[in-house]
Amino acid sequence: MNSITRVAIRFRGTVWSLPRPNRHHNVIRHIAESTGVSHVDARERDQGFLDQEGRYLDRKEALHVAREAGQLRADVPVQDQLYSENLW
Fold it and tell me: How distant, in Å, are the alpha carbons of 2, 6, 25, 33, 39 from that of 51?
């Protein structure tokens, strides 16, 4: 069964990711520190997750995978897209 393994952001044609328990703001900081940019423009569609096969999924696609894998935390409400807080 497929599952979510990492938070990810697509930035300037590259997918940047970090393992759990990181959040998207950690990825943004990592991008800024690694590239020297002062602003990371990560629109909603460019914030997502990687699955166990390394595929990038946007927040809505990732929600479906996480739900099917039983990864969602019971104590955090789920909306119509996945947030790292829903997982870890």
Answer: 7, 7, 19, 25, 26
Q: Phi and psi at residue 56, in whole multiples of 5°?
A: -80, 135
Peptide bond between residue 19 and the one before it cis (omega within 30 degrees of 0):
no
pTM: 0.92
Query: Three-state DSSP class for 48?
Result: strand
Instruction: Give pLDDT tens digits for 12-54.
Output: 999 999 999 999 999 999 999 999 998 898 776 799 999 999 9
Helix (H) or strand (E) holding 11: strand 4-11
Alpha-carbon gap, residue 24 to 18, rounded angstroms: 9
Alpha-carbon gap, residue 84 to 88, rounded angstroms: 6
User: What is the average per-residue pLDDT within 53-67?
Assistant: 97
Within the chain, where are the H helices? 24-35, 59-69
